[in-house]
Design a protein that fits this description.
GO cellular component, one term: cell outer membrane
Radius of gyration: 26 Å
Distance between the termini: 62 Å
Number of strands: 38
Domain TonB-dependent receptor plug: 60-167
Signal peptide: 1-34
CATH topology: Maltoporin, Chain A
Structural class: mainly beta
Shape: globular
GO molecular function, one term: siderophore uptake transmembrane transporter activity
CATH class: Mainly Beta
CATH superfamily: TonB-dependent receptor, beta-barrel domain
Domain TonB-dependent receptor-like beta-barrel: 226-680
Largest sheet: 22 strands, antiparallel, barrel
Mean pLDDT: 87
Number of domains: 1
Number of helices: 5
Helix content: under 10%
Low-confidence stretches: 1-18, 20-43
């Protein structure tokens, strides 16, 4: 336990020191300016989430590793892509490429092929395309967002097959995000300019509520950026893009307690993917992502039998590419060759909560069913993409029952079981399976400010279409060089089963040093053992090549261009990922301090090799001041990250430091003028490890970037 124990002490110690410094600083501030602080209200918010248990609860009360990002957080972050949204959330990382605006979420070292369920307005986002990057992306402009919630680990097994890493739920802007209480109409406009070769954003949202029985919201945004420079001042090819998004929502309340919402979201992204190295192909890419959903909710405080939430949804992601760079070859074709990748996901999610009491016990039974179907369609004029991202269909279905028991204010028990099943077919191959996954959580609150809990939860992920059916040759480095290797399908893949053990602590205390201050903290220690973990394996004889087509070649010695000739997705008997997460914030009204930290280690238990997907250890602290009667906010943050155990054959940035600063002035509640500097130190770093054979495709993160924005709201 040498490294584990040392890191635990390091993370816990750093977090404790930071919060202790906050307490000491507050005491000093009180002594120096007690009169100034008297009567201040703390602006700390206890956000409410339903993500962990499908029942409303405060984040700091939830017996799970849950985090929430709200509009005030988004205003300070000024995000340009979804990865920015979670920059202060532990356990959440992104494997994003600079030349692809798509995002791939990593939670606790698990990502790709649906290991993290991504939900936008209740609709799953399941797009995947094989290539030199992540195997699972979604496309979403953060300007459309109102809030985001994340639960880490398979504790949210009520959200269906696949989420052995966790669940991320995004909610886009709605009427209540634009109108204030009593208003019948409102408009929200936002604009932002950023440096680093030019970035622009403009958005406009409008909402009307003619009566309390219905309201309508519409909005659109446009974002554009040129190629950015990394921390060395080097321009990153094809990192520019144009993103146009729109949404429309209509909400009806036909009767007391009933709400019906119709939502539509669209995203059009134009960009070039691929670097300009002589041997690398580049593609002009046009991506269209559309989501539609219908949701019906019924909830009345006096109705203990029914608290119902049901939705049906449809999502389509359609990517069309034209080759515009690189050498010609049988795999990627000639310049002008076309290919497309499309996935349609349709499904429904129905659940209800029934509440009752027996003697001194409070019960909440939540039960439901869900289903989704992925239809993957790949078209390539060369025929190669049909093999690496094969067409096929997958149906996933399930149901769950959860019992939540509370006694007084100090005891809580959550017990749940979920049934999952799947069917997959394509290319003349089929696969199916099912399983029951249990979950149990026990929480004790010995004092009003302190809760400790333990959880055992299992999750189940069915193999993806690509993992099962992928086939075909990978192109050589350049024209005339043979294929580097060949993908081999595996119809015998078994589903993954995550078995997570977790201990958590929630701390919530008000009025510590003075009336109105507040402390919130969550600590989680976890170990997730994944049986039959699916990973890519290499085997077969080396691939050789004769560099000169002249007589005697061979027997002139051949050049080995790859150590293996075959690649296949296979089940690893067991993988283990364990770690610690800390998230804390102290708010004294005039100033606040936040600390987040994560440490993780993941290994193939049988081979004793590190897992590539495990992110860096990371420590982040932020400090903010509220001045001029809270109209002026100043904030600075520092993030230190370090990789400690990466598989051989990968290039990575061992450690890096990111410093961000923010200033926002809000002369009225409806006007915000703000600015930020990201990567103030102009640090150069690769955000995640890259295979050494892929370095021509690697994209470092942006260097120093200045941002300025104006946000205006009005209504009546």
């Amino acid at each position: 336990m040498g490294r584990t124990g040392t890191t635990i002490r390091r993370v816990a110690g750093a977090s404790a020191v930071a919060l202790a410094a906050a307490a000491f600083g507050l005491a000093s501030a009180q002594a120096a300016s007690a009169q100034e602080l008297t009567g201040d209200e703390v602006l700390m918010l206890d956000p409410v989430t339903v993500l962990a248990t499908r029942t409303e609860e405060k984040v700091t009360d939830a017996l799970a590793a849950v985090s929430a990002v709200r509009q005030d957080d988004l205003d300070k972050i000024m995000p340009t892509r979804p990865a920015d949204v979670f920059k202060y959330v532990p356990g959440v990382s992104f494997s994003d490429r600079g030349d692809d605006p798509g995002s791939s979420i990593n939670i606790r070292g698990l990502q790709d092929f649906g290991r993290v369920a991504v939900i936008v307005d209740g609709a799953r986002q399941n797009f995947q395309r094989s290539g030199h990057g992540s195997n699972g992306q979604f496309y979403l402009d953060p300007e459309m967002l109102a809030e985001a919630d994340v639960v880490r680990g398979p504790v949210a097994n009520i959200y269906g097959s696949g989420a052995i890493g966790g669940v991320v739920s995004f909610r886009t802007k709605d009427t209540d995000d634009i109108l204030r209480a009593g208003e019948r109409w409102g408009v929200l406009a936002n604009s932002m300019f950023a440096s680093n070769n030019g970035r622009l954003l403009g958005s406009l949202f409008g909402a009307v509520r003619p009566s309390d029985t219905y309201d309508v919201t519409v909005g659109a945004s446009y974002r554009t950026q040129s190629n950015y420079d990394n921390g060395l001042g080097v321009e990153v090819d094809n990192s520019g893009n144009d993103i146009a998004s729109g949404l429309a929502k209509a909400t009806f309340r036909p009767a007391d307690g009933h709400e019906i919402k119709i939502s539509g979201l669209t995203n059009r992204t134009d960009y070039d993917v691929g670097q300009t190295a002589a041997s690398a192909s580049a593609f002009d890419t046009k991506l269209q992502n559309d989501t539609a959903s219908l949701r019906w909710r019924y909830s009345k405080p006096e109705d203990q039998l029914f608290d119902f939430d049901g939705s049906v949804y449809w999502t389509r992601t359609d990517m069309e590419q034209t080759k515009v760079g690189g050498s010609s070859g049988p795999i990627t074709g000639d310049l002008g060759a076309k290919r497309s990748f499309k996935i349609d996901t349709s499904g429904f999610d129905l659940h209800n909560t029934t509440r009752f009491e027996t003697v001194a016990l409070r019960h909440a039974l939540t039960y439901g069913v869900d289903y989704f179907k992925d239809e993957v369609e790949t078209d390539d004029s060369t025929g190669a993409s049909d093999m690496s991202t094969p067409s096929g269909e997958r149906s996933v279905y399930g149901g769950f029952l959860q019992w939540k028991l509370n006694y007084s204010s100090w005891f809580e028990l959550i017990s749940a079981a979920r049934y999952d099943g799947y069917e997959l077919e394509g290319g003349g191959t089929s696969s199916e399976g099912d399983r029951i996954s249990p979950k149990v959580t026990l929480g004790i609150t010995p004092a009003p400010w302190f809760t400790v809990y333990g959880t055992y939860a299992e999750g189940y992920r069915a193999p993806a279409v690509t993992e099962t059916l992928v086939a075909g040759a990978h192109p050589g480095y350049a024209a005339g060089i043979p294929s580097l290797f060949t993908f081999v399908p595996n119809p015998n893949l078994r589903p993954e089963v995550g078995k997570n053990k977790e201990i958590g602590i929630n701390i919530r205390q008000d009025d510590i040093w003075r009336k109105g201050d507040a402390l919130r903290a969550k600590v989680n220690v976890f170990r997730n053992d994944i049986d039959d973990y699916i990973d890519m394996y290499t085997y077969g004889d080396p691939v050789t090549w004769c560099p000169r087509a002249v007589p005697g070649c061979p027997p002139i010695p051949l050049v080995t261009i790859n150590d293996y000739s075959l690649v296949q997705y296979r089940n690893t008997p067991k993988a283990r990922i364990e770690g610690i997460e800390f998230e804390g914030r102290y708010d004294a009204g005039l100033w606040y301090l936040g600390v987040t930290a994560q440490w993780m280690e993941g290994r193939d238990v049988i081979e004793d090799e590190p897992l590539l997907s495990v992110p860096s250890d990371k420590f982040t602290t932020l400090f903010g001041l509220r001045l001029l009667d809270r109209k002026l906010t100043l904030q600075a943050s520092w993030t230190a990250a370090r990789y400690d155990d990466v598989p051989a054959g990968y290039t990575y940035t061992e450690s890096y430091n990111l410093v961000d600063v923010y200033v926002g002035y809000q002369p009225t509640p409806d006007v915000l003028v703000h600015a930020a500097v990201n990567n103030l130190l102009d640090d150069y770093y690769l955000p995640y490890p890259v295979g050494q054979t892929d370095m021509i495709l690697a994209t470092a993160a942006p260097g120093i970037t200045y941002k300025a924005g104006l946000k205006i709201r009005f209504g009546g």
